[in-house]
Write a structure and sequence with these properties.
Elements: H1 7-67, H2 70-92, H3 97-107, E1 112-119, E2 125-132, H4 135-146, E3 153-162, E4 172-180, H5 188-191
Antiparallel strand pairs: 1-2, 2-4, 3-4
Length: about 200
């Protein structure tokens, strides 16, 4: 094919085609930038809107908690916790006398009877008074109560033995102070409260 166009016209047409291609690329870049700005702006407004929405929800929930008197509820829970600790402390020192009396009665030597039991100020201890037929039986009461196989008491001390009482069958009174064994079954919490 014969080209009858002059060199200047041919160059003009070539540059015109190149300009058209560059114009298309420039328009595409501008549209891409506009689209990018639009998406960034939309994302920013979405984040701001969501943040504001959640901030309002937090304020509403805080107002709800304040209206429910959260501080007073926490104080009530703390008071209940303290009361429970006090109950456990009291129960840990509570003695199950039904079991204790049966075990003490079982280890008492012949010729002796248990007269009285008193709780003392000592922690984990009691005072016992036994009536016996003689002095030797009184000391045997102490030996039997302190025997490790009984698992009653860690330590039993004789406070006094007095003989010559008015009871002809049991003229001697033995006063003992006993400290419970660490893992005995006569304290309420050690035994699980089973009577």
């Amino acid at each position: 094919m014969i080209n009858l166009l002059s060199d200047d016209q041919r160059k003009d047409i070539t540059y015109a085609r190149r300009n058209t291609t560059l114009l298309h690329w420039a328009i595409a870049i501008v549209l891409a930038i506009v689209g990018l700005v639009f998406f960034v702006g939309a994302g920013y407004f979405y984040v701001v809107d969501t943040t504001n929405k959640y901030a309002k929800e937090v304020e509403a929930k805080q107002a709800y908690l304040q209206s429910q008197q959260l501080g007073e509820t926490e104080q009530t829970i703390q008071d209940l916790s303290n009361n429970l600790k006090l109950i456990l402390q009291v129960l840990s020192e509570e003695i199950l006398f039904s079991k204790l009396l049966r075990h003490i009665g079982a280890v008492m030597p012949s010729g002796s009877v248990l007269s009285s039991i008193e709780l003392t100020e000592l922690e984990g201890g009691i005072d016992l008074v036994a009536a016996t037929k003689d002095y030797d039986t009184g000391t045997q009461v102490q030996v039997n109560l302190q025997d490790d196989t009984n698992k009653l008491f860690d330590k039993v001390d004789i406070v006094s033995i007095t003989c010559g009482g008015s009871d002809p069958e049991y003229p001697c009174l033995v006063t003992l102070r006993a400290k419970f064994a660490a893992n005995n079954e006569f304290l309420f919490l050690n035994s699980g409260g089973q009577q």
